[in-house]
Amino acid sequence: MSMSTRPSTNRPLDLFIAGLPRAGTTMLANLLTAPPERLVLVEPGLTRGDPGAHLPMQFEEFPDCPSPEHMLRRGDESSEAHFWRVWGPIICGLRSWGVKEVNPLGYDDLLAKYQPRRVIVLVRDIRDAALSLAEKHTRSPIPGKGMDWATQRLIDASHALLRVRSAVPSDRVRVVRYEDFVRDPAERAALESWLDWPLAGRPDRHMESFGRAWEIERHAGQVSDRSVDRRSREPSEDARRYASEVVEQLAEFQRTFGYSARHAA
């Protein structure tokens, strides 16, 4: 990943969270979001030309939100230019801002263009991530996207995170393991210190609007470890077999980030 010059018209990126699907990336983005000073955008698609329809919702608690007319895309305006025209004035007034993405498409461009001050690589045991992904797909299926598509997204993200960890200078990147983060307050405090950014936001911010109300109920709007080591409590033999098939393809990821590459729980 080459590091090219960041566009001078855009504000530098304070934080990029590159994460595995179902590794708590939305929770972390929410914890770091505290209107009106700090914001971590959830899946804005800055450099992949795919801005989510949920962007306006994420800015609602911040002052000077643009009118619906101002949000309309103009002529041949690029997705990125549209983003900065509409949301740039708010972002430039923030104390800190960041983005989190689990879709690896656009990672290279984002790192090259915006050269984030800090990068978090957020990981989770693939066996648990696969089981959580299967649950999410069952509860909130994406129209036209089957489980094969979801699995490939998990695989692609795993490979991308290995590349990000190697490509970003060591003083700018920090690996955060989901299990350690939710279990250990000291781990969260260490991350706050490294970022110089408090984890003061609501972990369940907009979760219901993202179609994940069941997570609010499961974790009671708190940082909890109720989803850690879920493979040991998985009653479905088919689900356990699925997790084993996925981890077989991602042994390097497991070893690199300190997880077992064994299929069995």
Word description of this protein:
- The chain has twelve helices and five strands.
- The chain has helices at 25-31, 55-58, 68-71, 79-92, 107-114, 126-139, 147-167, 178-183, 185-195, 213-219, 237-249, 251-256; strands at residues 15-19, 38-42, 96-101, 118-123, 173-177.
- It has a five-stranded parallel beta sheet, with helices on both faces.
- Helix 6 packs across helix 7 (147-167).
The amount of helix comes to: 40-55%
End-to-end Cα distance:
36 Å
Strand content: 5-15%
Order of helices and strands: EHEHHHEHEHHEHHHHH
Query: If you average the pLDDT, what whole number results?
Result: 90
| Overall geometry | globular
- Flag low-confidence runs: 1-8
Structural class: alpha/beta
How many helices? The count is 12
Order of strands in the sheet with most strands = 2-3-1-4-5
Number of strands: 5
Radius of gyration: 18 Å
Query: How would a textbook summarize the main sheet?
Result: 5 strands, parallel
